[in-house]
Fold:
Amino acid sequence: MKRLLLMISSLLFLSAACSFLAQETSTPAIKVDSFYFGRAYLDTNRNGKLDPEDPPLEGAIFTATDARGLGSGGITDGKGHAMAWWPAESRYPVKLRMKPPKGKGYTNITPEEVQISTGGSADFLFGDPVLTPSEPLSPTSSE
Structure:
């Protein structure tokens, strides 16, 4: 009889302990935000590389989109910087895209879209409509 009472009281104690452990805690979930940055510049010498003398380009349209389709965007400021943000964790790969300012005639020198698997920023180069010829530059040949 003592064994039976001991066994029943042990089971009741374990049952109470398990229900206590199964209760939700009041700790709030950690929220993760995603931030991506794009920088736009005028490639004044049309060499396809970012040089110290290449000025920032204001008004370019920046967007970022992750593998699930979450995305955001912004317009570059006077320093050529733009940011995309959303209140969730990102899934890579992430596509960063920069389009030239509307109605200004600028053209992409570097690809309009890049795909990243780590990190969160990219530089984009644009050609000035006054300085950029309609056809790509070709090396001069000497005969």
Observations:
- Confidence is low (pLDDT under 50) at residues 134-143.
- Residues 41 and 125 are 5 Å apart (CA to CA).
